[in-house]
Structure formats: C-alpha cells, structure tokens
Design brief:
Elements: E1 2-5, H1 15-19, E2 24-26, E3 33-35, H2 45-54, E4 60-63
Antiparallel strand pairs: 1-4, 2-3
The protein binds iron/sulfur cluster.
Length: 73
C-alpha cells in the first residue's frame, strides 16, 4: 500500500494526524499535512484506510498493492 496527499485539497483539519501519527505529520507553520512515509507496513493499512475515509477534503489517496503474479482481468 502507498499513500499520498493532495495539498491543494487539504483543509488542515488534522484528522489524519490524530488517526495515524506514524504516517501523517502537520507543519507547525503552514498547517499542511505531509506523509512521513509513502510505503506502509501492513500493520498501518487499516488505520490509513480509515484516515482516508475520514478526511474532510478528500485529500488522501491510498493505492493498494497488486497481488504478486496476478494476470489481471
Ligand atoms: S484529514 Fe485530510 S484535510 Fe485533514 S489534515 Fe489530513 S489530509 Fe488534510
């Protein structure tokens, strides 16, 4: 899983930082959120998905890993 933030959509609510501080951090000066790490350990996946759903700006994009060896549809 990978995660990114569109800072043009971020309204600096801080919801994601409160939900997963291991992944998201908020700048003290401009209030914008940044991703601490883009590739996430499996233990963080559920919380990051929740942060994405809760984000009021729709600014968080989660990209799920594709299964290895899959042939697609
Ligand atoms: S929850 Fe969304 S809008 Fe709020 S700070 Fe995080 S990325 Fe920005």
């Amino acid at each position: 899983m990978q995660v990114s933030i569109d800072q043009d959509l971020c309204c600096s609510s801080g919801q994601c930082v409160a939900t997963v501080p291991e992944v998201f951090e908020q700048d003290d000066h401009d209030g914008l959120v940044r991703v601490r790490r883009t590739t996430l350990a499996p233990a963080l996946h559920a919380d990051v998905r929740l942060a994405s759903v809760l984000c009021p700006g729709g600014a968080i994009t989660v990209t799920e890993d594709r299964p290895a060896g899959g042939r697609g549809a």
